[in-house]
Amino acid sequence: MQGLEALEARGFVQQCTDLERVREALSEGPVTYYVGFDPTAPSLHVGHMLPVMAMAWLQRAGHRPIAIVGGGTARVGDPSGKTELRRMLSDEEVEHNSRAIARQLEQFLQLDGDRGLLVDNADYLLELRYIPFLRDIGRHFSVNRMLSMEAYKLRLERGLSFIEFNYQLLQAYDFLEMYRKHGCTLQLGGDDQWGNIIAGADLVRRVEQGEVFGLTTPLITTASGAKMGKTAAGAVWLDPALTPVFDFHQYWINVDDRDVGRFLRLYTFLPLERIAELEALEGADIREAKRVLAREVTTLVHGAEEAERAEAAAAAMVAGAAAEDLPTHRIPDDEGAKLIIALADSGLCKSRGEARRLVAGGGVRVNGVKIDDVDYVLGPEDLGEEGAVLRAGKKRAVRVIR
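Given the sequence above, the corresponding structure tokens read:
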């Protein structure tokens, strides 16, 4: 029943308000816990997968998750980790994003109303009356304490809007609402949410004299120091319309050798014994561990059939054959048609400088033809109706379209 052992053994635990009390509570019986996801985009991305996987492990241990889609809080905007105000979304955008993210969460969790719940905080936050909210909830928050938190200190240097300053009160109210309605006693979230989580736990204690807890997952960076889930082409989304399945699969194939074992523990349900075997592989054999990682995560997000298609496309690419589901990059109508810029912007090269050197060295082919002109511009004869296939070296390829 416990579940915390799995989280600790696999590297999910960063901070906890009281680790031993959480361990005790989880061992005594089913615990209701929640994680909030603000629908600021039409999809979750790889960075969101960590708290989702932690939720899934606890549910497998018999505990009950509540997945909150923050249709209310998304209308305010979380300043945590942000250097400037988020773009304000329309009601229509928030509602569209909320529906899309809810569908994605249901791929990982059983949210049938019994074994788990799906909640949109717009249902209760949008009904709050301002003056009663300030009197009943706002009076429990110390402005001095809030300003001492890292999320607000960072933003004060660049400017913090009043609407963002209210965000912590609203997220804390989520915890109070979940405690009152569903007996929820544990909130999970990324480590950048630590201040918001402890504010919610404190609010429950002050208003209801309830004992609740908070636990955060680490903010993952790769062995090279890059933020997890970020590539030269942007975020790695779970929606195949934003990140094609092939690109998603290749992201995991191309992780640093040093990250493979850690990512197998965090992003798959493979037993630790099997992960230890894969982690022990060395040299060229580490490719097998990467293939397993890519297959497992792609299957989890997109299904077994799509994972098999991505593997087949990768094999075709390595063999030099064009595949219909190569990663696709759309070039703009302006200077994006320059070969060097297309190589960099599509993620085939890390920078325009690297792209220039690769072209000059004869390492780039356009539709199978070697190009060594650093000023080459992709023209209609290259792009045609189906786009052009760019290859950088022997193993990297992308299809560019207008």
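The chain is about 45% helix and 15% strand. Try to locate this feature in the token string yourself.
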